[in-house]
Amino acid sequence: MSAHLDSQGRPVVVVTGMGVLTSLGEGQADNWAALTAGRSGIRTLRRFPTDNLRTTFAGTVDFIPHDCAPALCEELAARAIAEAVDEAALGGRGHFPGPLFLAMPPVELDWTQRLALAAAAPPDDPAAVTYGDLLRAAASGRFTALHERVLFGSIAEHLADRFGTRGSPVSLSTACASGATAIQLGLEAIRRGETEAAICAGTDASVTPEGLIRFSLLSALSTRNDDPAGAARPFTRDRDGFVMAEGAGALVLESLAHARARGARILGVVEGSGEMADSFHRTRSSPDGKPVIATLRRALADAGVDADEVGYINAHGTSTPENDKMEWHAVAAVFGERAPHVPISSNKSMIGHTLSAAGAIEAVFTVKTLREGRLPPTINYVNPDPALPVDCVPNVARDAAVTRAISNSFGFGGQNVCLVIAAEPR
């Protein structure tokens, strides 16, 4: 069998470029330095009034000016993709020889209701601050242009034009698993022989009054307003909810044959993916973890490896009571007696939950973990939960030579994706 094919006769798919942007900073270097130092990017919100909100903090990207969430969503993606394309050195920014798969939040607005809300709200009300620009645009005749700007598919179209990708760009949303789904779609397209390369990205800028209110109504957010940096506490006894955050991650995937033919530097290998939706509840995942267990096993089978060959797990690790318990049960079921000894850390303890972007951002960090031989910590781990005997790399990064890892992504409504990522082709 060709060295460029996997054990199932499919093209081996490798990572040749990456980009990332979070509340910790822009680019791989700044993010990795902050992440391994255990620094938090979560802070009190200053972007809009929070007087009547239950949660008043988030992991925001405050160093990029913008006039609305969709504009920030696009700019975050553009910067992450630019870094990834530059590192891959494949075709230049305006001539990428493959498709774009973009994970993003459902930003298309209900225009009539939003405009009515802005018109009725006092000038300093969060609704007026958020939607006042839409009202002013409609009044001045610019409504059509602004509406086009934030249609769900338009952001990917703008990015495809900017980077010269091939074919129609794919916009997708599978809740908090979206970023991993984008990578899965790129992996499958290359395996099927539809393309030799793809850009897989996730972006999210949902930190708005409406976003905070909606998640608060679900009792999903931490309310530790007096301690933003310490609010995200995955796997602890006193975890009380996740922290909303913004960011973007991007990976350039290529077939191994294509990458080697052009002498590209190989950063990692996407060996397999597993996917399963559990249809348990509109927002909750099945508490018994069975769909996640199946997703993990499918990912391992797709990669053609055993659980014993995995040395690290980049956890979904949201810091909600249900998710962390469910994730531990799934890992314990798949890894058996090894489970308490497999390092499984959560980046969300430092950057918060970047929602649609999380799977892509955390895949970037997983590749960095393999390349650098250093496991990022789970910070704020002060009060362990005895029901979750997980090695979460507590509080301080750890040097470890790891050759294969899993990146977990579990979305609202039970949309689950797990990726198996290796340091080198076999």
Verbal overview:
This is Beta-ketoacyl synthase. Residues 10-423 form the Ketosynthase family 3 (KS3) domain. It holds the Pfam family Ketoacyl-synt_C. A hairpin with a 2-residue loop joins strand 1 (13-22) and strand 2 (25-26). The chain has two domains: 13-108 and 150-414, Thiolase/Chalcone synthase (Peroxisomal Thiolase, Chain A, domain 1), CATH 3.40.47.10; 113-149, no CATH class. It is α/β, with parallel strands linked by helices. The chain contains 13 helices and 15 strands. 35% of the residues lie in helices and 18% in strands. Strands 1, 2, 5, 6, 7, 8, 9, 10, 11, 14 and 15 form an eleven-stranded mixed β-sheet that branches. The chain has a two-stranded antiparallel ribbon with strand order 3-4. A two-stranded antiparallel ribbon has the order 12-13.
**Rough outline:** globular
Query: How does the major sheet shape up?
Result: 11 strands, mixed
Q: Got a strand count?
A: 15
The share of residues in helices is 25-40%
Mean pLDDT: 91
How far the N terminus sits from the C terminus, by CA atoms, comes to 12 Å
Write the element-wise H/E pattern from the N-terminal end onward: EEHEEHEHHHHEHEHEHEHEHEHHEEEE
**Roughly how many Å is the radius of gyration?**
21 Å
Second-tier CATH architecture of the largest domain: 3-Layer(aba) Sandwich
Number of helical segments with 4 or more residues: 13
Question: What is the CATH C-level name of the largest domain?
Answer: Alpha Beta
CATH fold annotation of the largest domain: Peroxisomal Thiolase, Chain A, domain 1
> Which regions are unreliable across 5 or more consecutive residues at pLDDT < 50?
none
Structural class: alpha/beta
The CATH superfamily of the largest domain turns out to be Thiolase/Chalcone synthase
Count of domain modules: 2
Protein name: Beta-ketoacyl synthase
GO molecular function: 3-oxoacyl-[acyl-carrier-protein] synthase activity
Pathway: Lipid metabolism; fatty acid biosynthesis
Keywords: Transferase
